[in-house]
Amino acid sequence: MNVRFAGPPWAEIRSLGTRLFLYAPALLTLLIVSFPATAAGVTEVPCPPGAIDVEPGASIQAAVDGAGDGAVFCLKNGVHRTQSVRPRSGQSFYGEGHSVLNGSKLLTSFKREGRFWVASDQSQRGRKNGECRPTTPACNLPEGVYIDDQPLSHVLSKDILGTNRFYFDYVNKKIYLADDPRDHKVEATVAAFAFESTARDVLIRNITVEKYASVAQKGAIHAREGSGWIIENCEARLNSGAGIDVGSGTRLRSCAVHHNGQIGIAGNGNDITIEGNHIWSNNIYGFDYTWEGGGAKVAMSDGVTFRANHVHDNNGLGLWCDIECRNVVYEDNLVERNQDVGIFHEISFKAVIRNNVVRYNGRGYRGWFWRAEIGVAASQDVEVHNNTLTIAPGGCGIVLIDQGRQTENGGKYKTRNNTVRQNDLTFEGAACAGGVSSVSPEDENFAIIVNGNNSFDNNVYRVPQTSEPARFVWGHDVTDWDGFRRQGLEQSGRLIVF
User: Fold this and answer.
1) 32 has which bridge partners?
2) Is residue 22 part of a domain?
3) pLDDT tens-digit series, residues 244-273
4) Which of 65, 245, 353, 475 lies at a 20 to 30 A Cα distance from 424?
5) CB 438 within 8 A of CB 446
6) Which CA distances in Å does 459 have to 293, 343, 420, 426?
7) What domain range is 150 assigned to?
8) Are 79 and 56 in contact (CB under 8 A)?
9) Runs of H (alpha helix) within 309-459
10) Could you tell me if 368 and 390 are in contact, meaning their C-beta atoms sit under 8 angstroms apart?
């Protein structure tokens, strides 16, 4: 991982006009993009009257324990360093606009060892979790190092240590740098979380959480074990695993979640709303995003709403519900330029995907029909309608996928009863859409795409006149537009050549 910014990334990206984004280290790609301004993130508002003030340097946990259930706190402007807070039920935490919980410690003492700079007495070590890309084998070690707010790449050997990298000798408790740390701010992650507890009805508002050694699949703000948490107008950045983790009853609104090591938002539970957030440039550590990485993923949940989020330029999927998800709504989101599928509903059940703008996703290393803007895999009872898609050359629009995936009890997930209608798809290359199976003839799911009550109708496909042959797929048959319609699909659909 080797990401460099001319200044703090959040300052650059908040500005109007052209923005500069960096993909994760596995990509090493620099892009200049534009998008509308967003209201997500911290705001300049005062704490409510009567809140208990906690100044930087004071123990937030001591205030929490002393005040008891239902207390309201004002975390004053400044850096609250290496704080880990276990809220009590009904407690509220407000920031003032520049209230930062920082999970790292400052490294101020270095010695030379040959060509390296070394910080000793570094005993921090978190739990290793997750699968990495071959090019970033240290992604799942949660320890991070930053020079002037720039994350360095973690390497596994001193032999490959170079500029913008660090090596952690866990046995001898040393951190090695190749860069001269003198006259620079150097930080190393220490704390594993900013907020985590089993409490109910916790409110966190207007606070920045950064540089925590959160383990993969856990958030620096970790609401999964609690219930009814509200997280609003927060910023989660540069944390090692997930930025924010949601649980039952979570309301996550108007937050800026970016440049986290594995994923922006994770979690599971029931009755979850993720709304109005700005989620971008996550998975900077280079996790294998087919394992888990990118914008936002919720699993094993009932009653999830992803609404009006801007999800872009993540090294992985955009919005994703996986494993036994039910009653999920994806609506009014702008999902663009993510490295894998834009919106993905996988080995799950009833969902509605509607009124989204989904464009230029699937830019990563996967081929076949995985390069889709919207994917429904091994799932049933999904409605996909009234979405507007733009598909880059080589990509696919809306794809149903069946792989004969097994359930925990030994049965099979069925890609059936899915309806795709009234979507508008513009292809910059060849058209690609439909339902595809990869199972063998002896598999019970062999004909599930064709015989499973799946349908495509009344969609519009806009295709350039100079494009390559189309790939409309149905079951095991890859065909053209006329062949697709001969199978009873798109009887009211339109193919528009421009």
Assistant:
1) 20
2) no
3) 999 999 999 999 999 999 999 999 999 999
4) 475
5) no
6) 31, 18, 8, 11
7) 105-189
8) yes
9) 448-451
10) no
Helix (H/G/I), strand (E/B), else coil: 98: coil
- Residues, the chain, total? 498
Rg over alpha carbons for the chain, rounded to the nearest Å, is 23
Residue 239 main-chain phi, psi, to 5 deg:
-95, 155
Dist. CA 298–CA 323, nearest whole Å = 9
* Residues 159 and 213 placed together within one structural domain of the fold: no
Q: How far apart are CA 225 and CA 269, in angstroms?
A: 9
152 and 200 belong to one structural domain: no
Pairing of strands 432-437, 396-402: parallel
Distances (CA, A) of 400 to 43, 254, 481: 41, 31, 17
Residues 156-188 have pLDDT tens digits of 999 999 999 999 999 999 999 999 999 999 999
Instruction: With CA atoms as reference, report the closest residue to 310 among 377, 269, 256.
Output: 256
Residue 310: φ, ψ to 5°? -105, 115
Same domain, 113 and 222: no
Regarding whether 248 and 120 lie in a shared domain, the answer is no
At 133, list the tokens: 């890309």
CATH of the domain at 414: 2.160.20.10
